[in-house]
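Before going further, learn to read the protein records used in this course. The integers have meaning only within a learned vocabulary of local backbone shapes. The record below shows the convention in full.
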Amino acid sequence: MFKTALFAAAAAAVTLGAGAASAQYAPMDMSWAIQSQMRNQQMGDMMAYQAAMRAYAALARARAEGHPFNGTFVLGNNPNTFGDGGYAARSARQGRTAYDYDQRAVRGNCLYQNAYGQQFYAPC
């Protein structure tokens, strides 16, 4: 009995003696952060919608012009796309670009043209 009375007195002293020093502050107003997050989400949704509508309009325009479409919007990567001749042309173009970089940047050659219109690389 004495122990419970002592415990109750100690608990009352702690509760009543807390005073202003240990009082909690009022809850912080975080409505600005929530509103900012909601605005950013809304802006992102709007930008995604606009990008999708631009892609859809480009697809509709391409189909109206009679171009086939393979479903990826990758131009010139497949023989049935509306690029510049499909994979073979793209591969050849990339090969020429790599060769040109090797000749000009790595080896320091210049591109020349002879009287017949043929192009060749030679030291600058």
Notes: The mean pLDDT is 75. Helices lie at 2-16, 31-64, 87-106. The radius of gyration is 37 Å.
